[in-house]
């Protein structure tokens, strides 16, 4: 693996970890995105060409260093063209591995960038959702308050309707009772009128009988009075004739004397 790559990765990890501890997850993702972009810009593909030309075989240098305590400037600047075919093959293999690791690192960095972008978008969506959730909660509270007010108004209206229905039922019962009382009074009045009519008829019949009886009595009294007067007249006439006779006799006696 490339030492610069590993050191850059370690540097990224240390600074990324420190920044993650100091800031939130959203700032960490942005810092990682910015750092990965910076590291990508600082490692162009031309470095791989330069690496293929100036790469040093650290293992061979270590072996040479172990055999010789002092390294010359020529040994520090070993080139691929100075190596034997076997070392060149090893170096080529190592370069291919480095290029493969570098490509994989680039893919991983792109994936990290994509994941970071997705994380940023998810965090932004989360913020939007939190805002929308807060708005929805406010709307829900407002709706619940309105529902409570409407329910209270509905309860009041229902209470008024119930009271009005009770009043209407009471008035209807009173009207029914009044109508029943009027009907009873009418029936009593009709019964009383019928009784009074029958009593009047009875009284009239009795009065007619009394009048007829009184008329008969008057007629009888009139007849008796007429008979009495006729008898009286007759008696008066007889008495007058007797007196006349006596007077005549008396006058005759006087003449004779």
TrEMBL record:
UniProt region (Disordered), positions on chain: 1-47, 230-257
Ranges of compositional bias, category Basic and acidic residues: 230-241
Biased composition (Polar residues): 1-10, 32-47, 242-257
Record key words, sorted: Coiled coil
Recorded coiled-coil stretches: 98-146, 197-224
Domain of life from the UniProt record: Eukaryota
Protein name listed in UniProt: Uncharacterized protein
Organism name: Aphanomyces astaci (Crayfish plague agent)
